[in-house]
Amino acid sequence: MNKSRLWPDTLFTRMFLIIAGLLLLSQLAVYWFFNIYQANPQAERLAQNWAQILTLSETLTPAQRQATESVLLHQGLRIVPAGAVRGHNPRLPVLANALQLLHRMGWPQAQLRVDGQRRMLWLQTRPDATLALAMPMLHPPGLPLPWFKLAAILLLSWLGAYLAVRQVTRPLTRLMQGVARLRGGDTPADLPEAGPADLRRLAERFNQTLRDLHRLWKEREMVLVGVSHDLRTPLTRMRLSAEFLPAEEEARSEIIANIQEMDKVIHQFLDYARSGEQEPLVATDLGLWLKAFILRQPAGVVWHPPAVALPKMPIQEVGLARALQNLVDNAQSHGSAPIDVSAEPTADGVLIRVRDHGPGIAEAELEAVRAPFAQAGKGGGVGLGLAIVERIVAYHHGRFVLVNAPGGGLEARIVLPPAP
Question: Which terms are listed as keywords in the entry (predicted)?
Fold first, then answer.
């Protein structure tokens, strides 16, 4: 059997089981030793009382028994004929131990019967005795006291383990949530710096790290935007000047093509830097929006309308259009027409597919090509197209994956979650 199925995968569950098990074992050990410590003296007291009562009952004459009957009844004791004895041998450890001690105190043939229905104990000096001593039971049989104690020990062990584990895992959960917010592009909020000293220090350092990363992120965006913007102005002047160069048509066209390629690269840098901007999410009819997006595409891009109407979704219209345009451009550059675009509602939200009919990508490279500056094949650019898609989809709290289509070609899938 797989080991992972036997052992839970979460830290909370593992620590809970370990601590709860240790607490339960320790409590059971204490309960067992306490019972032994308590049971032996109790059995000795019962045996001594029974020995004294039997001694008195054997020495009393019939007239004396009759005279002391009222006193015995006041104590809950009765001397009755042996034929009235009912019940079974003692099963409780205390009663069984007390009977054994009674045998050692000079009454080796003494017998004890337990009548749970009448809640009585019947004590005889020997099996053939004509009389028996009836006395009330110490505890009513209706309440299983040992089981109640064990259940209380189990519940308290679970409660103690839960409280102990929660003190450790709760700050870790906050750390994971903070990392998730940073990965999603949200402005990181400081974690509560509360609790034990070591966890407070961890929260302080984590908050400082988040602030430093966010500052570096913003500085990188400012540098990319500033440099790209400053470079586009001289490139524009160069392109305009190249248009009037008295050179051969072929040379002038090559110069203009190179300038346009440089401008495209700078445009990708700008898109990558600006993909982190917080464009507001707007509730949009996704079906109409996608249809309008396809109408702006060339003839090779084919829209496959969904069989079921798409719901309204909160999207960044400019950002999502940039992401889909990058997927379409990549499909045109690296794949083959037609470029199929489709969408359908799913249990997780809405699934958007962009598929080409080219050679696809090696399975080992499907994850790597989504990283910034990664390239697969020869299509120009600097490898930021899929990284831009990744960041925009992350701001929508969605998922972006690449798969090789069964019939050939590469398929990009975007899953947009519904409104919270």
Answer: ATP-binding, Nucleotide-binding
Distances (CA, A) of 253 to 207, 233, 258: 54, 20, 9
Distance between CA atoms of 82 and 131, rounded to whole angstroms?
Answer: 5
Q: What is the β-pairing status of strands 301-304 and 339-346? A: parallel
134, 81 Cβ separation under 8 angstroms: no
Distance between CA atoms of 333 and 335, rounded to whole angstroms? 6
Cα separation of the two ends of the chain: 40
| CB burial string 240-264: b at 16+ within 10 A, e below | eebeeeeeeeeeeeebbeebeeebe
Confidence (pTM): 0.47
pLDDT surpassing 90 at residue 343: yes
Report the alpha-carbon distance of residue 312 to residue 85 in Å, rounded. Answer: 83
CA distance 388 to 370: 9
Inter-residue long-range contacts of 188-191, CB under 8 Å, 24+ positions, other chains counted: 188/213, 188/214
Instruction: Please state, in angstroms and rounded to a whole number, the distance separating the CA atoms of residues 89 and 92.
Output: 9
Highest-pLDDT range among 30-44, 119-133, 262-276: 119-133
